[in-house]
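Lab notebook page, bench 4
Experiment: in silico fold of construct C2
Operator: M.H.
Input chain length: 253 residues
Purpose: comparison with the prior construct
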Amino acid sequence: MELRINDLNKTYANGVQALRGITLNVPSGMFGLLGPNGAGKSTLMRTIATLQEPDSGTIFLGDLDVLKQKTEVRKVLGYLPQEFGVYPRVDAETMLDHFAKLKGLQNARERKEVVANLLQRTNLYEVRKKYLGGYSGGMKQRFGIAQALLGNPRLIIVDVSSLCQNMAIINKGQVLLEGKPQEALDAYKGRIWKRIIEKQELPIFKQNFNVISHLLVGGKFEIHVFAEEQPDPRFFPVEASLEDVYFNTVRPE
């Protein structure tokens, strides 16, 4: 069941243009959406998840018109944002049962079995009676995965790239890159170089090299540079990560 997004646009009342003609074809499976704050990720994900309306454009999930057949879409679509609100004084079992009802599981016995199975699959069964407010960050993420899997969705939209078979990077409301994470990593093979420099040297290196990221380590900067060949003998090759792909794709102006 493919998700087809065509020329999607959204401008908020304050004049912020969150989506600028977004066009994407998303195959079945788990799809990751990457981008900096303000890139339009949340707007796009909430629109796909039938939680808000665009100004123009179309979204189809298979034969379903996402913008017109919201109830049917919610039965086959899972949604896992990177950060999601939970009710702090509600336990996981009760909350999942509530989400299951919203997904259309009306039979109480069937719903109980489904919820128990998901809690076991996400290693939360032993803490199913614990309030969500007392969950650690990892436990909350696993709870999010459980609720996204409710109803055996045909497609799951996530903001957690390491889980995905396919992904897209967007910025300023536009798609910059789309495809399989491994294909993106393969394209960067042998093109990411690392070096440790003094903090005060960073501006000079940014002027002379394509520095895509820098990390403070022990009072010095570890920089990653994108280059076709070794910039100089003091740079060492490193295996490319999705973070490298992301930072090189979303370039500051």
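Observations: Residues 108-121 form the longest helix (14 residues). The chain has two domains: 3-179, 181-249.
Next step: discuss at group meeting.
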